[in-house]
Amino acid sequence: MSALKRKRGGKGPGGKSKKVKLVENGNEPKTTETEQNKEISVPAPVSMGKWKNKERVLVFSSRGINFRTRHLMQDLRTMMPHTKADTKMDRKDKLFVINEVCEIKNCNKCLFFEAKKKQDLYMWVANVPHGPSAKFLVQNVHTLAELKMTGNCLKGSRPLLSFDPQFDKEPHYALLKELFIQTFSTPQYHPRSQPFVDHVFTFTITDNRIWFRNYQIIEEDASMVEIGPRFVLNLIKIFQGSFGGPTLFENPHFESPNTRRRVIRLATASKLREKQMVKELQKLKRTENKEVVTRDVTDDVFATPAEERPVHIELEAPAAKVVKKNKHKAFKRQRMQKR
Fold first, then answer.
1. In terms of DSSP H, where are the helices of 108-200?
2. Among 129, 73, 64, 72, which Cα is nearest to 92's?
3. What is the dihedral of CA 206, 133, 230, 197, to 10 degrees?
4. Bridge partner list, 138
5. Where is the composition biased (Basic residues) (predicted)?
6. Which of 54, 129, 64, 48 lies closest to 84, judged by CA?
7. Measured torsion, CA atoms of residues 133, 203, 170, 134, in degrees rounded to the nearest 10
């Protein structure tokens, strides 16, 4: 007994698909008109074209990452249906091992997150196995769950990539632009993608850094709302090979996190040292013997010259004044007479 096979979403040569029913004591199938009306046809696959640009991106990390980096990787895998995952790589292994892992996973692009000192996050974007590759310091990471944005896009939809005009002015930015296009853009007719374009990846250059944002297109007039995640990429170096090789470009504006933390510590230590010196000076002032000032310097300020007047000396004593005694008793008598 052999069941009839039919393609997903396809129909028979007659243009009508039939539901097959097998008879218990026979091999001949029987169909009825009522069963044909109740039949539910399988919809056609979404991607009907041929998948030509077979870009596959491996997204994984080293051991020692925190929860925020893990959520960021999960968000990138959700937004990019052409990605693959792998187990965390040991920190003792060399970075050249990633080329072999990509070859095993049949991937030609790689996003590798490397954690150091449990607080610094680095991201490698590489074209495997011939290069080039770029190393970034990832800063200001905010994930989808953390941002709680109002936007929401269809899972598996293809994004638009929007780049700052400065990417076309300098050669190292032009190289990064091509690397981002091949890594973050979902290939057309990918089996896991949807034929809709409803969100935009923006790469903006500000303060010698690359700012990544994700927006959803909500209206036909191209009004957008941010979805997330968001992060900032600070370029360190661009290498000719994959995860190594000759250095093509080195960012002169880059300051390592260790140097930055050292400057902050020195500034804090100098402030504390200055406060301690002020306290010691105050103690010395209290313990010093104070000099007794016999003459006040400010007395000269009030020494104003006065007009000279002739001295008049009285030779005779002044006349004595007559004092009336019991004056209040005389007033009392007058009041009593009036009554």
1. 144-147, 171-184
2. 64
3. 100
4. 233
5. 1-20
6. 54
7. -10
Amino acid at 67: F
**Alpha-carbon span 146 to 79, nearest angstrom:** 16
Q: Is 143 exposed, middle or buried (0-12, 13-18, 19+ CB in 10 A)?
A: buried
- Contact in structure between 124 and 242 (CB atoms under 8 Å): no
**What is the separation of C-alpha 144 from the centre of its chain, rounded to a whole number of angstroms?**
12
Burial 297-330 (b: 16+ CB within 10 A, else e): eeeeeeeeeeeeeeeeeeeeeeeeeeeeeeeeee
What's the whole-model pTM score?
0.67
Distance from C-alpha of 228 to C-alpha of 139, rounded to nearest angstrom: 15
- Residues 76 and 186: their CA atoms lie apart, in Å, by 12
Q: Which residue has the tokens 């504006």?
A: 253
Containing H/E element for 225?
strand 224-226
Taking the C-alpha atoms of residue 225 and residue 199, their distance in angstroms, rounded to an integer, is 9
Q: How far is the C-alpha of 52 from the C-alpha of 115, rounded, in Å?
A: 35
- Please give the Cα distance from 109 to 332 (Å, whole number): 124
Of 164, 263, 259, the closest CA to residue 211 belongs to 164
* Other beta carbons within 10 Å of 260: 10
* Look-up of token digits 């900032």: 232
